[in-house]
Task: inverse folding
């Protein structure tokens, strides 16, 4: 049975939580008295549907069920996780968390999205909430700061990992946890730079994203500076940069007066910088960029890339009736091109993923490759039969056309979510000795498993399009 | 004739400047009295050679010449750009900049890599330097803060753009320019978090790279927050987050005492976090991640991705004698797979790039596609003939096998830098009406240009491997 998450309070953060749980197969109930809640959350989930699955090279589990409630007890009934995301007012948090602790199952995790309050403050009226502070967009960014009793945070962390997030357990409770302290420091200094006319909002954004922003997306502050210390290491870096703290560079000690003039100045500059795009367009741009960068980090496994790989490894392998299903996935926007559809390269990429999966199935897996043997593709033929758009599901089945000796001859069919045949990829591989870089016989167990498939598929009709050359008449 | 940059002071920053100029075709002379300078700069350039060209889908210009000097006048003779990167001591900067202004051509830009000093301080003894403050690794990160007289910074900005950088002209000189003010704020707050035992260096790094670091690599602070304001916009966000500045969250007002205990604490935690990797390994990890993320940003053109595309558009198109050269590029690490060589997908990607370039050559370019017509690939055949490793050059030539009516039949040969034939891609395309999503006749000028190539190539021998089907005997 699907697990259930109750989301208390819609809005951008609540909607992000709803999407994260829902797309990971949880049932989600939303409690919000705002009549616009369903529309607002629907828009966040729509954004999530076009980006979250695109992070992975396998399909996420089937979505859970989504429901909306105006009765709190009904919303939290049977919940495994209850997440409060109401506005940042302590009296309101006390009231809501009190009601939740009464109505929710005793076994449910009660999480609060608060960015500022400590658990001791949240719970001073007897609630048992943990801080589970996420980052926008919640459906893409892995970070959740967890603060609370160790017994609660350990359990919460396990659940968060199971929905692809990165729980950071904050061991000592402090105002604003960790990340927002750093953010506030930058925000405060940036307000001064704008107020003093040193830089505009656009110039500050360029100073960040053209430089240290790129560093921080993959390593953080300290690992980056460790490198800057060069061969002499972290101590050398500290010796160089430490004394600067004494210099009167920043205006951090002062708080800029937060008046209408300052708000108008910032809002006006922000309009000039980003006003040509609507918030929805900005969100989609942000999400496409995040997906692209996080997919890039899969390669090294750094930061968010490592979280993706670990999460994907928990997904169920798809199964087929007659032929093995070797790929089941969503098409990311980054796979599309100027013609508005999946680029030819990625038809072959899906085929190559199917080959990799089929190799795994017969035992020629990562360990086999690490031990010095593999298959190399020597020849492939692709028929592009139909267009595939970003966000569509793709399912690949694999038929073995031959598997004697060093040779493995495969035929992949790429089907769209609607069942249409989008492409076929016929491919011939040779078994290789990776040290000699020469063809060689596969290990006996691999050969035996491949022979089983070859025999099982020998009775199937030869697929249409197999053995074609380019330009051959039908 | 190649332009010349003189790099004054080796080290990580000087080496990064040397690499950036050199790989963009400039001659580079290095002045440094350290006997280790040549080795140190050589290592930085080696890093740059494996990463900078991998950002682009075209080949960079041929490298310039690199020379080392212990005579300042000799080093700067004939220079167009002189970059000072000596340690951050004002008296030393005065001495070096004074000597440079005397020895260098009057037409040369004199840039200083200083992170802290203002131009008015640098020039108080009569030098004419501009601040050109780069970010590590200088060969990959686009940002350079330019501070100085407008006549000088405009000229400098043009040169920086021509080597793929993003000059940010700082209009009002202030200590530490813009980016380092923000960095210092985060550094200062982070030191407190470590000192107070709230978080380790590793935890702070996770708080950054799993969350806001990913946001800041593509948008900055303000554009990100504009989105957070949701439909209600920037003013709404300000109203929410502004008052927090009054809260006693951060310890920004104090300076932590910078003693050996603090240095040991930070250095010890950093060792525990990153000590399993050498600085060289960390650098390569960082560079591969940067290349992957920056390549991902090419798609949307956000931030560094936009800089890459604009720079690449200035590269010369390769030319061939008999057949058009349709691709000339380096193979990025991200194109390789578990077998330690270029993955099959990217053989087809190079072929697809060749097709795109050939379409451009016959006039079926971006404007033609925008106007509603294009070519779609219907069938491709790839022979994988030899392995290609990361960092190798790849050159593709294109032969037209047929070009009548709606059809375009191409044969791409992928050659490695050493001249070996790595693959052939035979591909058949159909001309399409993008609105109807149906095949259609090409525009007359496109048809005419394609016919020219078809006729010119008709006399060439039919390429070996054309018309093959998968598994056909040789």
Result:
């Amino acid at each position: 049975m699907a697990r259930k998450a109750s989301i208390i309070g819609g809005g951008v953060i609540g909607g992000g939580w709803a999407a994260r749980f829902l797309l990971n197969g949880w049932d989600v109930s939303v409690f919000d008295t705002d009549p616009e809640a369903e529309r607002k959350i629907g828009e966040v989930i729509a954004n999530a549907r076009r980006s979250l699955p695109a992070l992975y090279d396998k399909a996420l589990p089937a979505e859970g069920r989504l429901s909306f409630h105006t009765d709190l007890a009904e919303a939290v009934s049977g919940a495994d996780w209850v997440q409060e995301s109401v506005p940042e007012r302590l009296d309101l948090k006390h009231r809501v968390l009190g009601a939740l602790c009464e109505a929710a199952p005793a076994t449910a995790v009660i999480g609060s999205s608060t960015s500022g309050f400590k658990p001791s403050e949240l719970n001073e009226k007897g609630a048992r909430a943990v801080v589970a502070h996420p980052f926008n967009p919640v459906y893409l960014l892995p970070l959740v700061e967890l603060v609370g009793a160790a017994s609660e945070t350990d359990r919460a962390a396990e659940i968060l990992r199971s929905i692809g997030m990165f729980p950071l357990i904050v061991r000592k409770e402090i105002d604003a946890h960790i990340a927002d302290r750093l953010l506030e420091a930058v925000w405060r200094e940036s307000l001064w730079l704008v107020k003093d006319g040193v830089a505009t909002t656009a110039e500050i954004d360029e100073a960040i994203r053209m430089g240290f922003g790129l560093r921080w997306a993959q390593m953080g502050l300290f690992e980056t500076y460790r490198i800057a210390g060069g061969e002499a290491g972290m101590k050398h870096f500290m010796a160089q940069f430490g004394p600067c703290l004494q210099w009167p560079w920043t205006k951090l000690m002062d708080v800029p007066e937060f008046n209408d003039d300052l708000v108008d100045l910032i809002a006006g500059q922000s309009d000039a910088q980003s006003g040509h795009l609507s918030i929805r367009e900005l969100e989609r741009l942000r999400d496409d960029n995040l997906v692209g960068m996080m997919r890039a980090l899969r390669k090294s496994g750094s930061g968010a890339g490592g979280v993706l790989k670990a999460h994907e490894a928990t997904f169920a392998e798809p199964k087929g009736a007659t032929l093995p299903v070797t790929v089941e996935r969503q098409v990311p926007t980054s796979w599309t091109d100027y013609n508005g559809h999946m680029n030819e390269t990625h038809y072959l990429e899906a085929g190559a993923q199917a080959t990799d999966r089929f190799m795994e199935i017969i035992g020629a897996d990562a360990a086999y490759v690490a031990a010095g043997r593999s298959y190399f593709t020597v020849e492939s033929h692709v028929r592009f039969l139909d267009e595939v758009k970003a966000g569509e599901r793709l399912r690949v089945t694999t038929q073995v056309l031959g598997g004697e000796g060093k040779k493995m001859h495969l035929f992949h069919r790429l089907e769209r979510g609607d069942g249409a045949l989008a492409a076929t990829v016929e491919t011939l591989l040779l078994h290789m000795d990776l040290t000699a870089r020469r063809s060689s016989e596969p290990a006996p167990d691999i050969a035996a498993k491949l022979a089983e498939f070859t025999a099982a598929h020998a009775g199937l009709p030869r697929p249409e399009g197999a053995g074609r050359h380019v330009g051959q008449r039908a």
In short: Residues 279-298 of chain A form the longest helix (20 residues). Chain A touches chain B through 156 residues (CB under 8 Å). The first strand of chain A starts at residue 4 and ends at 8. The domain at 180-276 of chain A is CATH 1.10.1040.10 (N-(1-d-carboxylethyl)-l-norvaline Dehydrogenase; domain 2).
